[in-house]
Amino acid sequence: MIDRATTALLAAALLCACGAPPAQGPDTTAADPPATAMLGDAEVTATLVPTAALGAAIASRYGVERRRGQVLVVVALREGGHAVPARVQGRVRDLRGVSQPLEFREVRAGDAPEYVALVRTTPPDTLRVALEIADVSGRRLALEFHRDIGP
């Protein structure tokens, strides 16, 4: 069962060095807590993590390259302690007003689906994220939040 505390620990683990530190250095200063919302009885969590801050094992798990100026968006849906499938769409807008569509793909850790997308940015920046999440029954949720990305 993955609860809020576990999700927060996952976000912190994403920022831990699980291998050699990236050559360019991380482009964040602290882990932000995940954005959360309820979709019926399910909890939706969304996290943004600069890929330069990921350890090698975590980057490999998500199939991303660690590099400065690239942020990983991770969305998960949990109901009754179990991960459930969803459809995730979204956009991100930076401080300059430049908008990028988010192209999510499913990544599985065991039987738990997570949905990931990459965003290009030039730190420091503030990213405004607008997500639309739908569960298998068709219930929908709009989740909007912002995160600062440090130099």
TrEMBL record:
Coiled coil: none annotated. Residues 1-25 form the signal peptide. The keyword Transmembrane helix does not apply. The keyword Signal applies. Residues 39-148 form the DUF4426 domain. InterPro entries: DUF4426. This is DUF4426 domain-containing protein. Keywords: Signal.
